[in-house]
Amino acid sequence: MAVLLYDGFTALDAVGPYEVLCRVPDVRVTTVAHERGPVRTDTGELSLTAERALHEVRRADVLLVPGGGNRGTVAMMEDGRVHAWIRRLHRHTAWTTSVCTGSLVLGAAGLLRGLPATTYWASRPYLSELGATYTEGRFVETGKIITAAGVSAGLDMGLHLACRLADERTARAMQLAVEYDPDPPYDTGSPEKADADLKALALKLLEDAAV
Amino acid sequence: MAVLLYDGFTALDAVGPYEVLCRVPDVRVTTVAHERGPVRTDTGELSLTAERALHEVRRADVLLVPGGGNRGTVAMMEDGRVHAWIRRLHRHTAWTTSVCTGSLVLGAAGLLRGLPATTYWASRPYLSELGATYTEGRFVETGKIITAAGVSAGLDMGLHLACRLADERTARAMQLAVEYDPDPPYDTGSPEKADADLKALALKLLEDAAV
User: Fold this and answer.
1) Nearest to A206 among B177, B182, B206 (CB)
2) Is B204 a member of any domain?
3) Is residue A203 part of a domain?
4) Mind listing the pLDDT tens digit for each residue in A110-141?
C-alpha cells in the first residue's frame, strides 16, 4: 500500500486508513512523496516521513491519496508529475483510494470521469468540474476506486478495505484492535447536521490554521 | 500542546487528538521526544517527526501521551527520564492527557494513584497495579487529567478537550471540520461487542505486526 504524502496534506487522512490497514496480514505500507524525508501537514505543525520518492515506487496493490488544505490540494491538482505517477500505479492497483480532497487529485489525474465519487463536504461542487458525480456516503466504491468523505471518513473506508483485502472477520478484528467504537460528544460531523453559521465557523478555523 | 512521541508509539493515538485540536484558536501543537527527528511507530512503517527534544520543552498547557505497542509502552513505563519530564510538565499543565496505553505511562510516572482512569481495552487490568481504578468510558476526566480508551478514542477525547480549551461551538465546528460523522461498516469496536475469538484475533494481529 502506497500512501502519497505532499506538502499541506491532512495527517488524519493518511493515518486513519493506515492504522486500520497496516496490521491486515500481508499488507505492507509505505509513504511516498516527491522526495524522501519529512513532509509537512496543512497546519505546518506536524511532519510525517516519506520513506520513498515517487520514482522509487512503480507498483502498488493499494494507492491512497489523502486530502489536504486548499493550498496543498490545489498544488497536487496542478502537478502533472504526480498525475502521471498516479495513472501509472492505477493501471496495476487492486484498489485506488482517496480520503477527503484526495478525490480531487484523483479527478485531476483523470481517474474519475463519468464515475460516482465523494470528497470533503465543502468541496463537493468541484467533483462535477472533474467529470465525477457527487454521491452520498462515508465512502463510495466504483470498480476498483474508493473515495472517502472528509478526513475521519478514512477510518470507515479503511475498515471496508480491510474486508476487501482480507475478509470480514479480519476487518472486524481491526475495528476492535483500534477500539473504534465512536462516541463523539456532539453530533455535528456532517453538513446535514450543521447550520450555516457552524459551517462558516468550521471553514474559518480551517483557513485560519492553514499555512 | 506537547505531544510525546517515542519509539513504538501508535500513530492514530497522537494524530487523532492533534487533528481536532490543532485548529482551535490559540492552540499550537508541538511534538517532543528524547531527541529531535523521526520517531517510528509500533509497526515500524511510519515515522512522525519530533520537533523538539525533551529538555527543550519545560512547560505546556496541554500534555498528550499516546499509547504504543507492548514494547514501546513497556519501555516508556520504565523510562525515569520521561517520567521526570511528565511530572515536571504536569505541575503547570491545564490538562494532562493520554490515549490508549499512554495512561499506563502516566501511571508509571505516578500521576494516577487513587484516580479513576481508562486505557486500551486489553490493558485494563494493569491500571490497578499503578494505583488507578479502571472506569468505563471513551475518556475519563478527573481533575485536570483526562485518559482516553484505545487508539481511536483520542478523537472523542480531543473534541471534549476542544470544548474545554475554547467552547462548545468551537468543538462542534471542529467535529464538522474533520467530518467526524462516524459510520463504521461493523460494530465490533469494543470488547463488550466482540466474542473471545475476535478478541484473540485482534491481539494476534497486533502482535504479528509489532516490531
Assistant:
1) B177
2) no
3) no
4) 999 999 999 999 999 999 999 999 999 999 99
What is the Cα–Cα distance from B137 to B150, expressed in whole angstroms? 11
Total domains in chain A come to 1
C-alpha cell read off for A110: 483523470
Residues in chain A within 8 Å Cβ distance of B183: 138, 156
CB contact under 8 A, A23 and B206: yes
Residue numbers of the domain that contains A105: 2-183
> Is B190 within a domain?
no
Per-residue confidence (pLDDT) for residue B211, from 0 to 100: 85
CA distance A89 to B84: 48
Å from B4 to nearest chain A CA? 12
Mean pLDDT of A174-200: 98
Residues in chain A closer than 8 A to B28 (CB atoms): 45
Instruction: Report pLDDT digits (tens) over A9-25.
Output: 999 999 999 999 999 99
Strand ranges of the sheet holding A30-33, from the earlier edge strand across to the other edge: A52-53, A30-33, A2-4, A62-65, A95-99, A145-148, A139-142
CATH of the domain at A59: 3.40.50.880
Residue B198 belongs to some domain of the structure: no
**Strand bridging mode A116-117 / A133-134:** parallel
Q: What is the predicted ipTM?
A: 0.97
A64 part of contact set with chain B, CB < 8 Å: no
Is the CB of A150 less than 8 angstroms away from the CB of B31? no
Residue B43 contacts A where some CB pair is shorter than 8 Å: yes
Q: Per-10-residue mean pLDDT for chain B, 211 residues long?
A: 98 98 97 98 97 98 98 98 98 98 98 98 98 98 98 98 98 98 98 97 95 85
The answer to whether A179 contacts B150, with C-beta atoms less than 8 Å apart, is yes
Of B19, B160, B206, the CB nearest to A11: B19
Cβ pair A104, A69 in contact under 8 A? no
